[in-house]
Amino acid sequence: VNRPVLHLRGVAAALLAAVLVTACTQIVGPARTRRDFELKAATTADTVASSVQTARLVMRLGRQDDAFAPYMATMASESEDGATAATGTFSGIQPPDARSDRLRARLIELTDPAVGHLSEVRIRARRTELGHPDRRLERELARDARRLQHFGETYG
Amino acid sequence: MKRLLAVTLGILTAIGGFMDAGDIVANATAGSRFGMNLLWAMVLGVGGIVVYAEMAGRVAAISGRPTFDLVRERLGARMGIANLVASLFINLLTLVAEIAGMAVVIQLATDVNYLLWLPLMGLFVWIVIWRVRFSTMETVFGLVGLTLLVMAVALWQLHPDWSALWHQSSHPHVTGGEGTPTYFYYAIGLFGAAMTPYEVFFFSSGAVEEHWSRKDLAENRANVFVGFPLGGFLSFSLMALATVVLQPRGIGVDQIGHAALPTVVSLGKVGLALILVGFFAATFGAALEVSLSSGYTLSQYFGWQWGKFVRPREASRFHLTMVVSIVLAVLVALTAVDPVKVTEYSIVLSAAALPLTYFPILVVANDPDYMGDKVNGRFGNAVASFYLVVILVVALATIPLMIVTKAGQ
Fold first, then answer.
1. Rg (CA), chain B
2. pLDDT tens for residues B290-330?
3. CA-CA distance, B168 to B301, in Å (whole number)?
């Protein structure tokens, strides 16, 4: 076996290893047990809670005129995207039993309004309206964050 | 006086040029998830880069040849090719992260999607490499990077509970809700971010570009022993800011904008403007260094003419390597891969390949044929050997931890 062939084999082995590692570290995977499903639900709740908390900070910055409009619009938009992606990923996971079905429904009850509120923040940020306080939206976001964090702590 | 000014400028450049996308993401993420409980990993990494960058700079100054050139000559083609393939792959990932980081910073300033900025950023990197002198490039981006000191001011302005920060730093433990494997996975990320291989290839090749000789050894030591630890202070500030602002709110770092958030909360618009300039300089400077590093490693392995000190016409393959690297990086980034995820993968995979970079440097720095009377001393060898053991442990643990933790999930 000549050297170029050895080198090619080495490169092929390294590429195969890289593909395997990437495949093994993907976030999305089947939930084989109820506990597995609970952990995925908790991670989703934490991710959405993180987006909601970011949006709350962005609203505060806007109210105090402490940041430039493009930064706030980008942060609000990315927060919404992050929450939407997390809930979308979770929706694709098959619940293993009836109890998991109920857990799934409970989480969706929390994430759906949260994503809606994040959309409102994004719309206000893009219209540069964050300078005008919206107490109702701030209260809703605070409640979303509290509930999602509680959910994450309970099942995480 | 002129010499003192040059040394001071070198130190300032080293501070400002210390951070890159990997440091930004790793330190902000660590702070937001583990508070200051992972500071030790960052400090360990800064110590490691200090020890090995000093060696690489000394080797270049004494032998007049950069590290990679000597690695192939001293350790043979087979060891060299393994080093080359690993370095080029990690450099590509790092370049994707840096160019995407630049584009994301522009998005934060303009609200225009970062994907649209990517080709322009790639072009910008190439033009600067093509047109700007090495020393000018290094100094300008290093000095502009000093705006990141705004993070230290922001931290001070927040009036954090210093004793709590100190307690977390000095009594590290796994925080609630996080597993031990995840804790060590992020420790490896911080270590890898501080010791990214391109840094030493760039540092040693840069020393040759600037025609360092024995009389520049003092400047080498000043840059490394003063500049790098002070650069590490920026990493500390970022981690502490994330600990104070992001962690209590449960905000994770899934975008570079999150790393800027604590500074904005503390200092408002001025803080935002300065940190965006700093992040841009850090990622731009690193993109230049990584591109050059790719050109250096490939050219030095095959014995091609290399360097910015010769005309591009005389080092065409060196320049072509950089162009191809930049184009590939832009194309990968245009697939809309998550810039933060790419950065995390690049620093963790860097950690897995660290022995390939650092072991040969230690061998060459102990070879009197190259180094004469400037071989490593006993103390230097003891510290470097300690780090080599750490590097080996890190390299062995990286991939298993990556799989077990699903890349830190």
1. 20
2. 999 999 999 988 889 988 878 888 899 999 999 999 999 99
3. 45
How many angstroms separate the CA atoms of B109 and B277, rounded?
10
Lowest-confidence pick of A74-78, A104-108, B203-207, B323-327:
B203-207
Phi, psi of A6 (to 5 degrees): -60, -45
For A75, B109, B110, B266, the CA distances from A69, given in Å and listed in that order, are: 10, 9, 9, 17
pTM of the model: 0.90
Give B76→chain A minimum CA distance, Å. 14
DSSP per-residue string spanning chain A:
--HHHHHHHHHHHHHHHHHHHHHHT-S-----SHHHHHHHHHHHHHHHHHHHHHHHHHHHHHHTT-S-HHHHHHHHHHHHHHHHHHHHHHHTSPPSSHHHHHHHHHHHHHHHHHHHHHHHHHHHHHTT-TTS--HHHHHHHHHHHHHHHHHHHHH-
- Measure the CA–CA gap between B241 and B254, rounded to whole angstroms: 16
Q: How far is A126 from chain B (nearest CA, A)?
A: 9
SS3 B327: helix
Q: What is the dihedral of CA B194, B199, B204, B208, to 10 degrees?
A: -140
As a whole number, mean pLDDT of residues B279-293 equals: 92
- Alpha-carbon span A143 to A148, nearest angstrom: 9
Round to whole Å and give the CA distance between B265 and B183. Answer: 27
Neighbours of B383 (CB within 10 A): 17
Of B109, B258, B403, the CB nearest to A70: B109
Whether B384 and B162 have beta carbons less than 8 Å apart is answered as no
User: Are the Cβ atoms of B264 and A61 closer than 8 angstroms?
Assistant: yes
Residue A15 has pLDDT above 80, yes or no: no
Q: B405 to chain A: nearest residue by CA?
A: A25
B39-63 helix and B378-404 helix, angle to the nearest 10 degrees? 130
What is d(CA A84, CA A90) in angstroms, rounded to the nearest whole number?
A: 10
The secondary element (H helix, E strand) that includes residue B116 is helix B114-131
How crowded is residue B136: how many other Cβ atoms within 10 Å of its Cβ?
Answer: 11
Question: Residue B237 and residue B150: Cα distance in Å, rounded?
Answer: 9
What is the structure's pLDDT at A1? 44
Between CA B114 and CA B278 the distance in angstroms is 18
Q: How large is the C-alpha radius of gyration of chain A?
A: 21
Query: Taking CA B80 as the corner, what is the angle to CA B75 and CA B81, rounded to the nearest 5 degrees?
Result: 150
**CA–CA distance, B303 with A150 (Å, rounded to integer):** 61
Chain B positions touching A74 (Cβ under 8 A) are 107-108, 111, 257
Phi, psi at B330, each rounded to 5°: -65, -45
What is the rounded distance in angstroms from the CA atom of residue B349 to the CA atom of residue B407? Answer: 11
Q: Is B108 in Cβ contact with A74 (below 8 Å)?
A: yes
- Distance (Å, whole) CA B224 – CA A87: 46
